[in-house]
Amino acid sequence: MSVKRLQRSAILGVALAGMVYVRCVGATDARDMDESCRNFVEQFYNLYEPLEPGHTLEFTSLGDAVEKKQVDPELGEHLRVVLDAQANGGQTLLDFDPIINGRDPADRYLTGSVTRKGEHYLVEVYGVSDDGRKHDKPDVIAELVFQTGEWTFVNFHYPNRADSPENENLLSMLKRIRKSLGKENHPQPAGVPEGAPR
Q1: In the Cβ-directed half-sphere of 157, how many Cα atoms lie within 13 Å?
Q2: Contact predicate 69/150, CB 8 Å
Q3: What per-residue confidence (pLDDT) applies to 161?
Q4: How many helices (H) and strands (E) does the chain have?
Q5: Most buried of 48, 52, 99, 116 (most Cβ within 10 A)?
Q6: Which residues make Cβ contacts (< 8 Å) with residue 82, sequence separation at least 6?
Q7: Could you tell me which residues are beta bridge partners of residue 44?
Q8: How far is CA 71 from CA 86, 113, 143, in A?
Q9: Is the dihedral of CA 13, 74, 49, 141 positive or negative?
Q10: pLDDT at residue 183 is higher than 60
């Protein structure tokens, strides 16, 4: 692991742990919870290092988030299996980074509205271009739950794939790929659709 990755991983862990403590200890009403969730997601995205093609979760920013339980264990396990199969089998199963819903990261990320559905929180995430312009539509919608005093990502939704239920969110996409891995030698890849952020 490079020194830069180690430093970013350490900064990410300290920043998120401190932010969760400061923001969530006093989160007593819905507005505080929304703000806590929004801040957690924005901080995560602005420290996130996108996956490089062919990489497994090991020694990546996303792998660190899985290990620290910032990503739900079920989602983390599906990611691990699919990325391992992709790296070891030479097949393209995901040809985009599913956390940013694209191949190239934005200069930075901003969060938009937070919508609560039961115990789940949906947070709009917008990329900001190099020239400072926020994207017109969310790049991705992060889905989280608050449990044992911490925020955890449980899924990522893709607004530009809303017309395709099996590709609208990361969890269903990974389950479909894992199922095809057991049945076929050449599983159907999940690629970047038209209109996806690049």
Answers
A1: 15
A2: yes
A3: 86
A4: 5, 4
A5: 99
A6: 93, 94, 174, 177, 178, 181
A7: none
A8: 20, 21, 10
A9: negative
A10: no
State the average pLDDT over residues 148-176. Answer: 92
Q: Write the DSSP symbol of residue 163.
A: T
| pLDDT tops 60 at residue 2 | no
Residue type, 84: D
Question: What's the alpha-carbon Rg for the chain, to the nearest Å?
Answer: 16
**Residue 101 and residue 95: Cα distance in Å, rounded?**
10
Query: With contact defined as beta carbons under 8 Å apart, do 158 and 138 qualify?
Result: no
Whether the CA torsion 104, 107, 52, 184 is positive or negative: it is negative
Mean pLDDT on 171-177? 94
Task: Say whether pLDDT at 16 is over 60.
Answer: no
Mean pLDDT across the chain: 84
3-state secondary structure of 160: helix
Q: Could you give the strand order of the β-sheet that contains 120-128, starting from the edge strand earlier in sequence?
A: 108-117, 120-128, 140-147, 150-157
Q: What is the pLDDT of residues 129-152, one digit of tens each?
A: 999 999 999 999 999 999 999 999
Sign of CA pseudo-dihedral 170, 158, 145, 21:
positive
What is the DSSP code (8-state) at residue 161?
G
